[in-house]
Amino acid sequence: MDEDEVELSPQETLRLIEQQSSVALDQFVPDPVPHYLAWGAAWLVGFGAIFLRQGLSGTPYVEIPQAVTMALLFGLMAMAMLVSALTMWQLRSPVRGASQQRGMLYGLAWPFAFLAVWVVALRLGPFLPEAEQGLLWAALSMLVVSILYMAGGAIWLVRPMFVFGAALAVLNAVGAAAGPGWHSLLMAVGGGGGSIAAGLVMRWKGPR
Fold first, then answer.
1. Partner of 19 at 20 to 30 A CA spacing, among 37, 128, 167, 178?
2. Which sign does the torsion angle of CA 193, 196, 202, 204 carry?
3. Is the dihedral of CA 114, 118, 121, 124 positive or negative?
4. Other CB atoms within 10 A of residue 183 CB
5. Angle at CA 125, nearest 5°, toward 84 and 123?
6. How does the average pLDDT of the chain come out, rounded?
7. Which spans are transmembrane here (predicted)?
């Protein structure tokens, strides 16, 4: 019997199967950690700046022009969106198949969804007071993000991603009902801080 044909023990066979399964998972399932870290940083800094400008009662803690805070938030969110799209697009598998197509379509969903948000906000924003205009932009954007997080978790069966998206949707709704200042605080601390913490925990745990 050749060396290549030596029969493996049950333990060795099981270990080989687990090893190959892990490799296949890394190749075909996108790593969600970059999403958590990129979006967490964008929300923590962007919404943190908006909160400092608005304050909980409408009295600013720091005098920052609204245009600056909104540009900061959406600039950082655009970078996070790029990270999301590239992560889903560039799956590490050289095999073209259903998994790669899902990643490509999911990545494309982000810019199209935000394009719709911007059109709606530009159309309706002028009818609202200044503070409510910012809330409209922020709440619609976070609604899109939470839905796409839940969709990503459902597509790749990543339960923490789905749960975080659902929690983000609840925080967004509560903040929108409470007012601009509270919404910014919840999104900065609960959304941004929670996303960064989740990403760091997942990175610390190592490969999926």
1. 37
2. negative
3. negative
4. 27
5. 80
6. 81
7. 36-56, 68-91, 103-122, 134-157, 185-204
